[in-house]
Please model this.
Amino acid sequence: MGPSLDSRHRKAIGLVLDGKSDREVAGEVGVTRETVWRWRNENPLFICELNHRRREAHRATRERLQSLQAKVLDVLDQALDDGDTRVAMALLKRMDAQGWPGGPTRVEEWIDKEAEAARTGAVIENLNSMTRALDPEGHDAGAEKERELRAKWLPSK
Model:
């Protein structure tokens, strides 16, 4: 059997995920700061396990955020109804800051992402003028973008 991570490595990974510095991790695990740096930068077992755990934590966060989307949109809607563009913009900025690593792996996902970006762009643009996310003719910019992209990138079925 090849090399594996021991309990110190696993504890260090947990501490890194908790946001501890290399110096703090070293102190709690009982190694030097340099050793922690080597683990993080030169030990593929440590690096891969850390990345795996980050992805798992990220997946859990994403699922939680997805479950809160309806509430967030209700708050955003209420803020707009109340004329509070400051709160609405803060929410949109926060949502944008949660950009997810990796990109789409299927054309359908890419189209959905582009359509959502068009919808978000319409909301941001219209927040300043306190209008709805529809253009003056009442068309949904995201739906139009989605139709355009589906026609371009997906074969007809």
Q: What stands out?
A: Residues 130-134 have pLDDT under 50 and may be disordered. The chain is about 75% helix and 0% strand. Residues 58 and 89 are 24 Å apart (CA to CA).
